[in-house]
Amino acid sequence: MNDWEHLQQARPRLVREGTPVEVGSAHPWDRGEVARLPELSGLLAAATVTPVTIAGRPFEVLAWDGPTGRRGWLCRPAAADTTPPVLPLHRALWGVLGGMVDVFAAPDHTNATGGDDTWWSENHQEILTPVSAGSERFVSSVDAYGWLWEDDGLEVPVDPAAWYVLAQEANGNLTVAHRESGQVLLFGPDHAYDGITELEGCPPYSLYTFDGAPDLAGWIELSARQWRG
Fold it and tell me: What are phi and psi of 187, to 5 degrees?
């Protein structure tokens, strides 16, 4: 079974029946390291890359051996010249990898309350992609959930427009980064995570910092470390 077939088996609803798919030849990762991201770079170095075209759109399957078999990501191709304004580190990442649109056989980090603390899990969508970075979902979500702060007599302590989306979750949670400082926050109105702390001036189920990842580099490295384990 090749890596595309592993992905299809794990994510059977990923591609609708009848959608044209062309699978290219697999090859080892050959794009080198990403500065300041040694954990991610090590993971990429271990990956096999399979080019895939789905309904005429290019993607790549990156996969490697995990503890129980093949695991990996469906990625967008490198896109260093993409227009959404992002942090320099993120732009450098796009020079070799356009981010993930789906994952398969994700590592399991189930916490004491039954939540999954894997930050790049099968519940996540558009992780580190130009699509997520260009989304206005954080602005609209904070506006829609403004009552969380109002009910506690608080004001939203951040300007949502100064942040951009790193990852979206199927349940509406968002991971975002500040366009200048690189700080990373979780907007978690429907979360069951450990390892996060309410941002000062915020009620429960609103904005959180990541205990082990204060900024973009830390968040990427934490997530890559989970996937390497």
Answer: -95, 110
Residue type, 184: V
pTM: 0.96
Beta pairing, strands 174-178 & 48-54: unpaired
- Assess contact for 192 and 173: CB atoms under 8 A: no
CB neighbour class for 123 (10 Å; exposed up to 12, middle 13-18, buried from 19):
middle
CB 141 within 8 A of CB 44: no
The 10s digit of each residue's pLDDT in 40-62 is: 999 999 999 999 999 999 999 99
Exposure string of 91-109, with b = 16+ CB inside 10 Å and e = fewer, is bebbebbbbbbbbbbbbeb
Nearest-angstrom CA–CA distance, 97 and 120: 15
C-beta of residue 79 within 8 angstroms of C-beta of residue 94: yes
Percent of the chain at pLDDT above 70? 100
